[in-house]
Amino acid sequence: GSCHLAMALRYAALCASIICCIWPLIYAARPNFIIILADDVGWGDIGAYGSPSIRTPVLDHMIQHGLKFDSLYTAQPICTPSRGAMLSGRQPVRVGMYQDIQLNNTQCSPAHGLSSVLWWDSLGGLQNDTLLLPQALDKAGYHTALVGKWHVGIGRHLEYLPLQKGFDEFFGTPLWHMNNMGNESQIPDCPLMEGNKMLGRLYKDINVHELTQRYMARVLSIIDEHQNDPFFIFYTPDGTHEPTYASAAFQNKSARGAYGDAMEEMDWSIGQILQRLRERKLDDNTFVFFSSDNGPALYATVERPTLSGKLQAGSAGPLKGGKGTTWEGGIRMPGVAYWPGKIQPNRVTQELVSLMDIMPTVLELAGVSVPPNYVLDGVSMTNILFNETASSKHEFLFHWRGDTLYAVTYGFYKAHFWTQGGTMYTTPGIQQHDPPLIFNVMADVSEQFPLAGPQDDPNYDVVLAAVVQAAKNEIASMDPAPPQFNVCDPAAGMWSPDLPIPPSKPYCCVGGGN
């Protein structure tokens, strides 16, 4: 008996020692995530994508040693909806990131297919019935941080800010780096925030040109502080959003002007982050992903009177159109996945991928499940990350603009049911197409030559039938959430604690945005 007891005790001790040894290994194996979402960066703004004038050695290195995406699409061609979709894995219309009425002179009028955002005085935001990526990871024990631009809701009582949406820390701006446009009594300068607390106002209290440096420093400190914990960092620098900004060390250094300066500083900041991961021996356990929220702000080339103002916009390279449009230049994004030792280097994929795929991909890598029957429009792309022969799980990608389905991508083909001019504000304006305009967007990347029929492409009839039926199914199955961009109220802006809050006067928001 004593012999058996001794053996049992030794066995228990052995098991305990194995568990003690294995548990840290299992915990350490939980990957970290750094998701980098640039602002208004186009296909033609990165060296490895063909930029002739902007130096991006870090992004080029990531592409050379990672996976480059050639058919990566954002959910919508403008900031708020695209960011809300990426964080939720859902179409923006499914989470209320759209507008269906707008101020027309002094009247509220129905409006559809708008490319709109949340403004400084918008009352809406991501609702509580929407599960966000940081919320799922936070519950799973990850330290979650947002550093940079938020722009998916403030609310009357700060109820839509990042700390209320699953992030453990937030250092950045609730909108973008907007100023008061010369009228502080009506529009406050955007604040820089630490959590729910205002640190000061951009332009007045905070040097906007130093934001990229400050954001990068915060990311480095998070890596240092949480190097022994699993972390998720959403890094969203916005120096490339017009009006662009860069620190003194990067000003007037790029051949591409002020926009190039901002791009090159952002690229450098990413390099500092990758270097810190290597120094902390975290690079082989950290999944890094880079892309942009939407295409370049080509409207700057139309609206701005001076050459320096016109050069505030990025470039879509060979792609047609830009921000605010569902032409390829507005929604087809540069992108790279980088994970040394896990993702094979120097790979390129032409498989269909959406920024809505980030949430299910990260959750699968983290071993986290979404609730049963919870609808996601994105799918996990882990098969593409780790298998160069894998195919996309997307048969179709659906491109909404506001509450209207504008286009459908089907393999190498794209069908436009509606189109907008080359920018949000240029002619021709919104046009409907029946039958839809169909392009082979791999052969005709600039969308210059719509297919006229089987004489242009033997697959035309099959493609036409497929996209028309897919569009009908998508519209019929979509369950839109209540629109969050409709109502504004000047009293809801970020006024306090330093500025007087004006009287509450809800009104219909104007359409369009950043």
Provide keyphrases for this structure.
about 25% helix, about 20% strand, alpha/beta, 12 helices, disordered N terminus, about 525 residues, 10-stranded mixed sheet, 21 strands
Outline the structure in words.
The protein has 514 residues and is α/β, with parallel strands linked by helices. It has 12 helices and 21 strands. It has helices at residues 2-29, 57-64, 79-88, 133-139, 211-225, 257-279, 299-303, 307-310, 328-331, 358-366, 382-386, 460-477; strands at residues 32-38, 67-69, 72-73, 101-104, 107-110, 143-149, 169-173, 191-194, 197-201, 231-236, 286-292, 332-333, 335-338, 347-349, 353-354, 397-401, 404-410, 413-419, 431-440, 487-488, 507-508. Strand 17 (404-410) and strand 18 (413-419) form a beta hairpin. Helix 5 (211-225) runs parallel beside helix 6 (257-279). The radius of gyration is 24 Å and the shape is globular. Residues 2-28 have low confidence and may be disordered.
Write the layout of secondary structure elements.
Blueprint: H1 2-29, E1 32-38, H2 57-64, E2 67-69, E3 72-73, H3 79-88, E4 101-104, E5 107-110, H4 133-139, E6 143-149, E7 169-173, E8 191-194, E9 197-201, H5 211-225, E10 231-236, H6 257-279, E11 286-292, H7 299-303, H8 307-310, H9 328-331, E12 332-333, E13 335-338, E14 347-349, E15 353-354, H10 358-366, H11 382-386, E16 397-401, E17 404-410, E18 413-419, E19 431-440, H12 460-477, E20 487-488, E21 507-508
Parallel strand pairs: 1-10, 1-11, 2-14, 3-15, 6-7, 6-10
Antiparallel strand pairs: 2-13, 3-12, 4-5, 7-8, 8-9, 11-13, 16-17, 17-18, 18-19, 20-21
Helix pairs in contact: 5-6
